[in-house]
Amino acid sequence: MSNAIRYDPLLIRYLAEELDRRLRGRVCGSTPFFAARRVALLALDGGEALEMDLHPLRGWIRIVPWEADAAPLDAVCAGVHAPPDERRLTIEIDAADRFRSGARRLEVELMANQWNVLLVSAEDERIHSTLWSRRAGTRALTPGARYEPPSSSDRYGAAAVNREAARRRWRETLGGVAASEREGVLIREFAWTGRVNAASILGSDAQAPDSGVDGDAIEQAFERWWALCALPPSRPVVLHTPYGLQPYPLPLHGYRWERAESLLEAMDRVAQAAPAEKGTPNGEDAALLTAARTRLEMAERRAERLADEVARSGGAERLREQADLLLARLHEVPRGAEEVEISGWDGERVRIRLDPTRSAADNATEWYAEARRRERAAERLPAMLEKARAEVERWREAVRLGEAGSLPDWVSAEIERERAKGRQTSGTQTSALPYRVFRSSGGLEIRVGRNSKANDQLTFSHSSPSDVWMHARSVPGSHVILRWRDPEGAPPARDLEEAARLAAYYSKARTSGIVPVDWTRRKYVRKHRGAPPGTVVPSRVKTLFVEPKKPPEPA
Question: What is the pLDDT of residue 101?
């Protein structure tokens, strides 16, 4: 059994209050540093950092010494809070400067087996970066996706309730429940409960088979729960539980405990008392775990690409109708128009966007071809996506077990099979890629083409249709791709500007003071037959004016 800290809504509520007192108004970094083995660090003034160690065998959150120059201190902590009766806390960060608002927040999710830290833009609710990129049911916890918080439990008692009404609800809900099921019903139905405090609330008598609705044990259990719901002043302790030491904001009935100065100090004591991790990978095991993480990333990228294709595979009938209408109204369409408004079949005016580099008839022909592609894709992609997601879960579980010290045997066999086929690992693949890789301050990947031929490969073989394509205007230079999954919303302005600066730097205009950089979606970039390497025709272009800036070393 692991010694990981267990989080329930009560612990998180008090922890948020203590962090708010310690962090509000402090200078901090605008972006967390994500270290190896599921550790996130938020730089603080005074040579400290907020450490969120969310490894499955640990789980503590504490303030630790950290080198002051390890990360820029370019923001201020605006506060910390936790939604009522949820296992999530939010750290508000104000990174505004005189040019733009920089409100963002760290969402620290502490649900069982799903611990994560996500940097979210308060302006558009987009995820900048994550400690653990993954899918959680229907939620996409990946950079560029819109952040959706976990669904709330809506348990009784999260909002203010009348004491006598609560007592009746308690007796009606728990009085007739079998002893073996009572703890589960309590956690499912009543706010502020979890595995840490449920046994304490019920007590040994309340769990006896013969305790009924009128028994003293049920009444005493209610009083203990009601006292916790009142959220009394914090009295931090370290509990001695059957599964190890546990920081907690209040002493609990039935547990031995030791007083602590604060919850953060209790966290620190638990961390210091934790035994050295058994099975920490080294040597060949470490190499296999690294290879497993690489395979997980590859599987996730494939699943994301297929999910994007599935999302784009619909609408074939709409494309055909649009093409039919355009062909029927060719006389209403001026050549070179980006958008046209024509009469629909019912007489209503219909607005249609066009590729201005093509004739109206060619636009319609392209839509017919796209409709056929989408129909074929709709037939084969769902099964491929289901298989890809199963592969992601298989490698995700392997990595989780490997990080806990017990990498499955099949991982070694599969990695060896890949090596035997002569496939390159991620380290050798990087050197053969036609682009350099950088990271924006928001955690988005930026790809910069190495030469003219590589520009073509980057734009048409190593990017997605929704990615942002960039190039310095009217001068030779690298194609730049800012990875972005959302086909509708624009990337954060700061990330867009940083990518544009790379496009300016890796161009013949590098020595200029200000460089115009054109950008558009990659799907709006085309290459004419026979055009020289790196020569493309973008449409729907917007322009940024930036100063070239020498980048850091590629990621």
Answer: 60
